[in-house]
Amino acid sequence: MTLVRSISEASRRLSCVVRSMTLDVVLRWVVALVLLMAVASKCLSPGAITAVATYLLGREADHGLIAASLSALVMIESALALALITGTYPRVTGIVAACFFGVLTLVLVRLSIDPTAPHCACMGSVHGGMLGESPGQSTVGGLVRNAGLIVASLMIARGAREGARA
Question: Which of 46, 40, 35 lies closest to 79, judged by CA?
Fold first, then answer.
């Protein structure tokens, strides 16, 4: 009877680990795809993202600084996506991604406060979204999306921690 109970307990634990690993992989891929879509939108519409960077850094900001900050942003998004896809350091990557999305959420709020802010070609466009929603709807949608991405990123980090314990 003890052998049957041990086998049953091991089977139950393995099932929980497999479910957790599957959710972790799905979350990593979803967040990575969102990051890759953000990279693609910046590459397809460099003028719009440059206008946003100029607005945020100030009109008197050096063009080299603006270009460097945009290059850094694209590299960070690409590196995070690659780390998520490959599963490299998932705990650290999840925490960094959550912080990154938190900063982007603050930028989204900053852009939404000022009606003179340039149209953001990013996925959280604030002055009329890709689907024709009003600026307010687009901002709310961006905030909800970013909150979901923060939660997903933290779940990735937590899942990595739990996986290390198992």
Answer: 35
CA separation for the pair 166, 163 (Å, rounded) = 5
The count of other CB atoms within 10 Å of the CB of residue 62 is 10
Could you tell me if residue 4 is inside a domain? no
pTM (2 decimals)? 0.75
Domain that holds residue 142: 22-165
User: Which residue, chain included where needed, has tokens 């690409």?
Assistant: 78
Q: Look at residues 39, 141, 16, 68 and name the one whose alpha carbon lies nearest to residue 31.
A: 39
DSSP string, 30-47: HHHHHHHHHHHHHHH-HH
How many Å apart are CA 15 and CA 81, to the nearest integer? 28
pLDDT digits (tens, 9 = 90+) for 108-129: 888 888 888 887 656 545 444 4
For the chain, the domain total comes to: 1
CB-CB contact of 81 with 36 (8 Å): yes
- Residue written as token pair 């982007």: 104
